[in-house]
Amino acid sequence: MEKIKMKNAIAELDGDEMTRVLWKVIKEKLLEPYVELNVEYYDLGLKNRDDTDDKVTYEAADAIKRLGVGVKCATITSNAARMEEYKLKQLTPSPNGILRGELDGTVFRAPIFVKNIQCNVSSWKKPIVLGRHAYGDVYKNCEIKTPGAGKAELVFTSDDGKEIRKTIQVMRGPGIIQGIHNLDDSIRNFARCCFMYALDKKIDVWFGAKDTISKIYDGNFKAIFNEVFESEFKEKFEKAGIEYFYTLIDDAVARIMKCEGGILWACKNYDGDVMSDMIASACGSLAMMTSVLVSPNGEFEYEASHGTVQKHYYKYLKGEKTSTNPVALIFAWTGALAKRAELDETPELAEFARKLEKATLDVIEEGTMTGDLARLANPPAKKIVNSWEYIDEIAARMEK
Ligand code: NAP
Ligand code: MG
């Protein structure tokens, strides 16, 4: 059989620990037999990031901007324990943080559904994709514990020295105050990323905030979303047959619990932090959650939502064949290949990605799965396999 060719390359960002081990197996058994992989390889393994003072991470970000598509393995974010373990020169920032910053992108997370793992929320038939604005608000706050009675004020001094001053509260006793901010540019880019993602997937966008109470702060989010939609996306949405819908955040939450899914839920930073955990937990396993970073210029970087699965890696180092679930890693590759296929107009590559996803899920739906899913499956799993056996089962199906 002749291998499928790729017109243009994708950026491949290798990673750490158990996911790095499986990454290699996935390439060897599920991709390379069928596709002549055209990749620019960047080793984002912790040691190499340390050796290159993170230069490799910035190079990888540039490659994603240049090529338009990237696929990333999970990576360790260094901390004191890792410094000791890997004998690092320095503590480096999170590579995902660097990539997000360089691409000015938004992360979208979506659960993968299979028939025999029931979602805890029975109305959800299709994935709810969550887009979290990852800038500002309470994550860049400034707080004071006030010692006694006094006046709390909000002051803004512009670069030309003019002052805007408002009283927050005349406080009659000790208490707490907090200042938070956001930037129009960041909100605008967040809105663009959301609309871009929705167009790509042909799904509606819901956005919720509390503009009835926070008339200026949340009101600004609502206004910018509306402005970006009207001026840049309205016609494209009409053509695609999809909608943008704004509602109050509490109404959005109530509707989410009753909807059938298949939408993008755009969330402010804190709402996204909280609600993404709710959706992940209701949908089963972290290993069935995909993640894609979308830039406002339409660059896409695909990865799994989970980390490097450190505990499994230590067992693997002792010789154990662990039952680590590779589904989200496989879907990171199929997502990137399908995107490449779409941009290059190479339908045979798109078809390959679709078939690999189907084979991956068919094996589970027919009762063969890794341990994390076996704990949730109904009807119960027929066969619990380790990662290598599972990948072999998928490969056997691809052969057919
Ligand atoms: P983790 O790697 O996501 O794993 C946490 C636990 O979740 C595992 O111990 C395992 O539970 C379960 N799990 C996650 N993925 C699984 C899979 N594919 N198959 C089966 N079970 C799975 O999180 P962590 O252990 O907190 O973090 C490890 C490293 O990953 C850290 O250094 C962190 O910095 C990094 N990290 C990277 C990313 C990223 O690159 N996107 C994201 C998060 C964390 P059991 O042990 O109970 O089986
Ligand atoms: Mg959270």
UniProtKB/TrEMBL annotation:
<keyword id="KW-0560">Oxidoreductase</keyword>
<dbReference type="InterPro" id="IPR004790">
    <property type="entry name" value="Isocitrate_DH_NADP"/>
</dbReference>
<feature type="binding site">
    <location>
        <position position="132"/>
    </location>
    <ligand>
        <name>D-threo-isocitrate</name>
    </ligand>
</feature>
<keyword id="KW-0460">Magnesium</keyword>
<keyword id="KW-0816">Tricarboxylic acid cycle</keyword>
<dbReference type="GO" id="GO:0006102">
    <property type="term" value="P:isocitrate metabolic process"/>
</dbReference>
<feature type="domain" description="Isopropylmalate dehydrogenase-like">
    <location>
        <begin position="9"/>
        <end position="394"/>
    </location>
</feature>
<dbReference type="Pfam" id="PF00180">
    <property type="entry name" value="Iso_dh"/>
</dbReference>
<dbReference type="InterPro" id="IPR024084">
    <property type="entry name" value="IsoPropMal-DH-like_dom"/>
</dbReference>
<feature type="binding site">
    <location>
        <begin position="94"/>
        <end position="100"/>
    </location>
    <ligand>
        <name>D-threo-isocitrate</name>
    </ligand>
</feature>
<dbReference type="InterPro" id="IPR019818">
    <property type="entry name" value="IsoCit/isopropylmalate_DH_CS"/>
</dbReference>
<keyword id="KW-0521">NADP</keyword>
<feature type="binding site">
    <location>
        <position position="273"/>
    </location>
    <ligand>
        <name>Mn(2+)</name>
    </ligand>
</feature>
<feature type="site" description="Critical for catalysis">
    <location>
        <position position="210"/>
    </location>
</feature>
<protein>
    <recommendedName>
        <fullName>Isocitrate dehydrogenase [NADP]</fullName>
        <ecNumber>1.1.1.42</ecNumber>
    </recommendedName>
</protein>
<dbReference type="GO" id="GO:0000287">
    <property type="term" value="F:magnesium ion binding"/>
</dbReference>
<feature type="binding site">
    <location>
        <position position="250"/>
    </location>
    <ligand>
        <name>Mn(2+)</name>
    </ligand>
</feature>
<keyword id="KW-0464">Manganese</keyword>
<keyword id="KW-0479">Metal-binding</keyword>
<dbReference type="GO" id="GO:0006099">
    <property type="term" value="P:tricarboxylic acid cycle"/>
</dbReference>
<feature type="site" description="Critical for catalysis">
    <location>
        <position position="139"/>
    </location>
</feature>
<dbReference type="GO" id="GO:0004450">
    <property type="term" value="F:isocitrate dehydrogenase (NADP+) activity"/>
</dbReference>
<feature type="binding site">
    <location>
        <position position="109"/>
    </location>
    <ligand>
        <name>D-threo-isocitrate</name>
    </ligand>
</feature>
<dbReference type="GO" id="GO:0051287">
    <property type="term" value="F:NAD binding"/>
</dbReference>
<feature type="binding site">
    <location>
        <position position="77"/>
    </location>
    <ligand>
        <name>D-threo-isocitrate</name>
    </ligand>
</feature>
<comment type="similarity">
    <text>Belongs to the isocitrate and isopropylmalate dehydrogenases family.</text>
</comment>
